[in-house]
Amino acid sequence: MTKQILFLQGNDVCVEAAIYAGVNFFAGYPITPATEIVERLAEQLPRKGGKFIQMEDEIASMCAIIGASLTGMKSMTATSGPGFSLKQEAIGYAVMAEIPCVIVNVQRGGPSTGMPTCVSQGDVMQARWGTHGDHAIITMTASNHQDVFATTVEAFNLAETYRTPVILLFDEVIGHMRERLIMPEPGEIPLIERLRTSVKEGTDYHPYLPRDDGRLPMSDFGGVHRFNVTGLVHDMWGFPSNNPNIAHGLMRHLVDKIENHVSEIAKVKEYYLDDADGILISYGSPARSARHVVENRRKRGIRLGLLELQTLWPFPAEKVRDLCSKAKYILVVELNMGQIMQEVKKAVEDPGKVFLANKIDGTFISPTDIRNIIRLIQGKGV
Amino acid sequence: MAVRDYIRERFMPHIWCPGCGHGIVMNTLIRAVENLGLRKNDIIMVSGIGCSARITGYLDFHTLHTLHGRALAFATGVKLGRPDLHIIVPMGDGDATAIGGNHFIHAARRNIDMTAIIMNNRIYGMTGGQYSPLSGYGRMATTAPYGNIDQAFDIVELAWSAGATFVARTTTYHAHDMVTILEKAIVHKGFSVVEVLSQCPTYYGRKNKLGDAVEMMKSYQKGTTPIGSNAKKQNPDLVERGIFVQEEKPEYCTEYEKIIQKVKGEKQR
User: Fold this and answer.
1) Domain segments of chain A: what residues?
2) Quick one: pLDDT at residue A358?
3) Tens of pLDDT along B57-108?
4) A261-298: pLDDT as tens digits
5) What CATH architecture applies to the domain A5-182?
């Protein structure tokens, strides 16, 4: 059977993937450059028996997907910088109350209203630390439409596995660029469904008592078990507590359930790294230019490699250190002022060999831009 | 079912101050639910943050304690997930009309089927007595040490003009009326708003020299009157209580279900 081939923009691919993953609730608010996600789901969801609602603001959208997810629905919202800022408090609620959900941020130039129609990757650190308090978070990205599809499905899988909000950090170029998508067949990408409790009705159910493996079987809210859900520090029944031991245990659980599984969660793509003297590290749309440079140089026998990050948080520091251990220089290619470069500097043995190729003017970074920086690093001049 | 069966007794005594009106609201709400013969599993209660919001911890329903002002936004997602269940959203006046004002008017506009109970004590109690959108001009609060210059909302008018299809006002003094009103609000198909004047002797009463809880409740007796009474014509300062709006309009979840039935299974255009 020949596979279906579609020609779509990245925002549409994200929607197709979400439907493939089984999304059945979406709440959103129009914002450039993510609006196409909202529009397409408004059309698609009721056809699948799912539900769409355009809420009164970004905050309400985030709150609504948490409420719907609690009742057992696979829930998602989509936004861009200003909306992502507004959602932060409720993202923290989803972290604290351990509610699976997916938040798409199609990044545009910031701060503030910034450059709504222009590309940026300025929200990397906001994805990590946007909500208050110590916490762990999962954030993923992609550089092409096939990966946008796979990563979006993976985001739903991780949200369900770890009972956590997962942020998809795309960018304006990925969102609006049109390219080919080979539509995966049903079943081709495994789907992970919510782990539901086997505790019977009438038996004491502990919604916040993790199993030995850290996972929490859920009971759909409104179902046979009555329990409390709160953003306060809570005990194993979900009731508020000021007990220091309970608070400490909960904080450790929330962070450890993700940080102790970095090797399972974090994904990278490696291109020509085995013998590379110079390594480019990139993610999202700039990784396309970086890959172009690497393949172009390889044809001339220059030993350049590319490490493409697909997971930004938790940051795969050990993997980056191992893969970059023999490189003479590392060039991080990103559309911000070095947000991932700082993480790379922290990860590698010699931070002095880490450089930055970036753009912060709303335009895309070209292979020529990257080549020029490489020449500068090598003392060759531009 | 006995009243105490609805309460999570291990959390008693509650955290509300002596004389607080919120316990009366909890009491009447339980009686309304009991009179309606609803099972504990039939009700999802969603609250925000504040003194009022703590009611969710004490009642043995499905309870969701959310963020300040956002209870109705969370509840909207919950209701779309479980349209078959009754959603009750207790809020304070600051919770519902200040930080949550936007969600309040839009939930009313959508006419989504849930019951909003606004426990109006005209002050932020949990944080210690700051003025709210319901405090009123000239009133005292810790953040209005020289007298409040903010005008107050009228919750009934606000809910009415925003599109709520059931709007009522009652007080903690009129507990028997409150039971009947809450029963009607819960079974009403659409967005119901019940404003309950609820005394806060600790902050609002003390700051404004209104006496203790009993005196404050007596002021509800003397200062309010049934809708359309002769007393109101003679004394326009009296606050009316009763059911102001009770009408049928298309309900949000029902309308969405119609869309699903219409387009389900259709291929992409």
Assistant:
1) 5-182, 269-379
2) 98
3) 999 999 999 999 999 999 999 999 999 999 999 999 999 999 999 999 999 9
4) 999 999 999 999 999 999 999 999 999 999 999 999 99
5) 3-Layer(aba) Sandwich (3.40)
Chain B neighbors of A72, CB-CB under 8 A: 81
Query: What is the per-residue pLDDT across A88-133, written as a single tens digit (0 to 9) for each?
Result: 999 999 999 999 999 999 999 999 999 999 999 999 999 999 999 9
Q: What share of chain B is helix, strand, coil (3-state, %, to 5)?
A: 40, 20, 35
Q: What share of residues in chain A are helix, strand, coil (percent, to 5)?
A: 40, 20, 40
Task: Count how many pairs of residues, chain A against chain B, have C-beta atoms within 8 Å.
Answer: 134
Q: What's the one-letter identity of residue A77?
A: T
Residue A224, chain B, CB below 8 Å: the answer is yes
Nearest CA distance, B210 vs chain A (angstrom): 33
A228 vs B contacts (CB less than 8 Å): 56-57, 63-65
- What pLDDT score was predicted for residue B269? 56
With CB atoms and an 8 Å threshold, state whether B77 touches A59.
Answer: no
Do the domains A269-379 and A5-182 match in fold? Answer: yes
Q: How confident is the model at residue A1 (pLDDT cuts 50, 70, 90)?
A: low
Tell me the pLDDT of chain B averaged across its residues: 97
| B78 in Cβ contact with A223 (< 8 Å) | no
In this prediction, residue A240 carries a pLDDT of 96
A46 closest CB neighbour out of B70, B81, B264: B264
**Burial classification of residue B29, based on how many CB atoms lie within 10 Å of its CB (0-12 exposed, 13-18 middle, 19 or more buried):** buried
Q: CA–CA distance from A309 to each of A101, A300, A318, A360 (Å)?
A: 22, 25, 13, 20
The reply to whether ipTM tops 0.90 is yes
CB atoms near residue A197 (< 10 Å)? 17
CATH of A269-379, one of 3.40.50.620, 3.20.20.70, 3.40.50.920, 3.40.50.11900: 3.40.50.920
Query: What is the signed CA dihedral for A7, A8, A13, A15, rounded to 10 degrees?
Result: -120
Q: What is the per-residue pLDDT across B121-151, written as a single tens digit (0 to 9) for each?
A: 999 999 999 999 999 999 999 999 999 999 9
Distance CA B115, CA B166 (A): 9
Overall fold of domain B3-267: Rossmann fold (3.40.50)
Four-residue CA torsion sign, B89, B95, B97, B101: negative
Which of A71, A16, A67 shows the shortest CA–CA distance to A44?
A16
Q: Give the type of residue at B261.
A: Q
Buried b (16+ CB within 10 A) or exposed e, B36-68: eebeebbbbbbbbbbbbbbbbbbbbbbbbbbbb
Least CA distance to B44: which residue of chain A? Answer: A222
Tell me how far apart the alpha carbons of residues B269 and B258 are, in angstroms, rounded to a whole number. Answer: 19
